[in-house]
Every structure is written in C-alpha cells, then in structure tokens.
Design a protein that fits this description.
Number of helices: 10
Largest sheet: 7 strands, mixed
Shape: globular
Distance between the termini: 31 Å
Oligomer: single chain
Length: 276
C-alpha cells in the first residue's frame, strides 16, 4: 500500500522528469507501483486473461511485438503490457509505439511517457530496438481499434509495413501476437462521425450501452481474453539490399499479418463462450 508521502512523491514524478530512466521519460518504478496498478485487477479478475507462448518472447535484447488492435478503447495494449511485465520470466517492460493523439492530450502524454511509451515513428522505434528494448506496435492503428462489431477479428491493413523495415534495419526478431476477447468489450454498432469531427477524434463509438447509459455505458463487458505469442520471425540473416526492395518489406509485413489473422481464426474457433 502506498503511504501518503510515497503517493506525493509519485505525483511529483508524474509531473516532472525526475527518475526517468532514459530520454523518452520512462519511469520503471512509477509504472510498476502506480500506473499499472489499476489494470492488474482488470487483467486478473475481470478479463481473466490467459497468456500463451511467452517462451517466444526473448528474455533480453531488442525485439518487436506486433499485435492486432481492437476494442474501441486501447485496453488491449495495456493488457499486453501487464502480461509481459508480470508474467514473462524476465518481467519485460513493453515500450509501446502510440498514436500521435496520445501525445497531444496534456495529462495522457505525460503518463504515457512515464510508462515507457513514445510516438509511433521509425526514429523512435530504431532507437529503442538498438538499445535492446522490447517494442510493441499495433499496425492497424485507429482503423483496427474503431472497427464495427460486425467486422470483429478481421484485420485491417498493416499500413506501409514500417515495422518490418525497422526490424530489418536492426536485425531484431518480430514476435506476432494475437489477442482474442477485446473485440467484444465495447460492441461498436455505429460511428457518429459528425460528433467525432467536432471533438477531433478519429471515431465516436455508439454501442448498445453508450452513450445511451451515459458513464455506465463506458464500463467494458467482462469478456474472457487470451493473448498468444507466436514463433519469432528472424530478420538478422537478411542482406542490407533487402531494405531497398519495397516489395520484400511488404512481403515480410504481409506474412506477419497473415500469421496473426490465421491465429485469430484458430483461437476464435477454439473458444466457447465469449464470457468464458
């Protein structure tokens, strides 16, 4: 339990660069003891997350975890962070590459940096991987996060394959990750685009409970989650010339996407009730 003095210390650190482990602003102690604390009960008791294939995530050195993205709100990214920090044998800190919108919001951008995350761009990804960090990316972005419920577990495009370029440049492995359970926490039946544009958001979700029930409608449904890490895709053996071939980079990206999609199909077919 946090003491009052400890709590005040953490609050001060949330507002300053004190205790940052690197130039991105990461504060490991603050993340473990405060920032991840409210998400651990969600992970353990509410979503009852099961994690598989942790042996496929390297215990040290740089690696790129590539996962599907869904659920209207990015709880899947946070559950992924908890899974690797609390349940991986090496208790690895996942450094997520987040959308620009996260770093445009005054409070959220500070907390995101303290938790070790940074804006999604090639320079940041290269720097983190070269330092031996475990980097997380969800290439579907908002298109995956805000897709309609009718299209659940159908992956969107993975952009231009930037994550594949980063992996090839650094020679670090790519670990495909498939997450089942997040699609159903906020079944999005419509997107109120006029309201989204008014608020400067990529989408404004309409679900069976939100905005009809107001704040109560923001409570996620207690679905049963599974996170599965696939076998790493090595990149160190490719020649530098491979980077000069856009078709080759797209091929690597598409292969990772296909692996995640096939695994999602398999996992959805294996599960019983959405609620466990």
């Amino acid at each position: 339990m946090l003491t009052l003095a400890r709590g005040r210390d953490f609050l001060d650190r949330c507002l300053t660069e004190e205790q940052s482990a690197d130039d991105f602003g990461f504060d490991p102690e603050l993340t473990d003891e405060l920032l991840l604390a409210p998400f651990r009960p969600l992970y353990e008791k509410y979503f009852r997350v099961e994690v598989e294939g942790l042996e496929n995530v390297p215990s040290d050195g740089g690696a790129l975890v590539v996962a599907n993205h869904s659920g209207t709100l990015p709880l899947d990214a946070l559950m992924l962070q908890v899974a690797l920090r609390d349940h991986h044998p090496a208790h690895r800190a996942l450094r997520l590459l987040a959308a620009d919108l996260v770093f445009e919001l005054p409070v959220l951008r500070v907390l995101a940096r303290k938790a070790g995350h940074t804006a999604a761009c090639m320079d940041n990804a290269l720097r983190l991987l070269e330092r031996g960090e475990l980097v997380g990316v969800m290439p579907e972005g908002y298109k995956g996060l805000g897709k309609p419920f009718a299209e659940r577990y159908r992956l969107r495009r993975f952009g231009r394959g930037g994550f594949a370029s980063v992996a090839l440049l650094t020679g670090r492995p790519i670990v495909p990750c498939s997450i089942v359970g997040a699609e159903e926490i906020y079944p999005m039946v419509a997107d109120a685009q006029p309201l989204a544009k008014l608020l400067g958001l990529p989408y404004f979700p309409v679900t069976p409970t939100f905005p009809l029930l107001g704040p109560l409608g923001a409570i996620p449904l207690p679905t049963k989650w599974t996170i599965r890490f696939g076998e790493p895709v090595p990149t160190a053996h490719y020649s530098p010339e491979a980077l000069d071939d856009p078709m080759f980079v797209h091929k690597i990206s598409d292969e990772v996407r296909d692996t995640i999609q096939d695994t999602l199909d398999e996992m959805v077919g294996e599960r019983g009730s959405v609620f466990g």
